[in-house]
Amino acid sequence: LNYWNFGDYIGIGAGAHAKLSFADRIVRQTRVRNPNVYLDRAARALRPFEEVVVDANELAFEFMLNAMRLVDGIPLRRFQERTGISPTAIEPQLAAAEAKGLMGRDAFRLWPTPTGLRFLTDLQTLFLPAV
Question: The pTM is what?
Answer without folding.
Answer: 0.85
